[in-house]
Amino acid sequence: MTDTRVAVLVGSLRADSLNRRIAENLRDNAPEGVTLEIVEGLGDLPFYNEDLDGETVPEAASLVRKTVAEADRVLAVTPEYNATMPAVLNNAIDWLSRPYGAGAVVGKPFAVIGATPTPYGGKWAHEHTQKSATIAGAQVVEHIVVSQSAMEGDILADEAVVAKFADAVQALVDAEPTA
Ligand SMILES: Cc1cc2nc3c(=O)[nH]c(=O)nc-3n(C[C@H](O)[C@H](O)[C@H](O)COP(=O)(O)O)c2cc1C
């Protein structure tokens, strides 16, 4: 049997991004039968513009669409900027939502996790990502969401927190596409 492939959209471009490190930790410790692929190049995507989205599309958009189209599931791992998702993630979802009705996320089980150094852990960003991905056509699994506070210490050294993230991945893998 082939592995279940999970495309991972990281909402931070920062070199030392905590959310990227969460994604890398999950990728490096993926359960047997599961492959997580961090979708690179989100920072190379131009701002979504319908004029650019014709018979040909920018190479960065084509690569991101291909990686997600080839996956079985999609996981967003994101911080929160100004009470919503970072623009880089919003822009990626816009590219992945078109062509209308046939975007790369359509029908794919989709979950959201992430951490921020506040008591709320980015919950508004996560709610907004769920809403946006739903409208984009993904099959958002509402209950798979982890908004982790990272106020002090290294949350990736906390086994209970790491287990929470890993459980979210497992639940996403177990979610059957309904379409
Ligand atoms: C422009 C900007 C806006 C931010 N707004 C929020 C916010 O609304 N809520 C929040 O929890 N954290 C906010 N933060 C803090 C980020 O969550 C924090 O920098 C986080 O570590 C970024 O994630 P990363 O480590 O993956 O890059 C903001 C940070 C920036 C740079």
UniProtKB/TrEMBL annotation:
Residues 4-147 form the NADPH-dependent FMN reductase-like domain. One of its GO terms (molecular function) is oxidoreductase activity. One of its GO terms (cellular component) is cytosol. SUPFAM superfamilies: Flavoproteins (SSF52218). Pfam families: FMN_red. This is NAD(P)H-dependent FMN reductase. It comes from Nocardioides daedukensis.
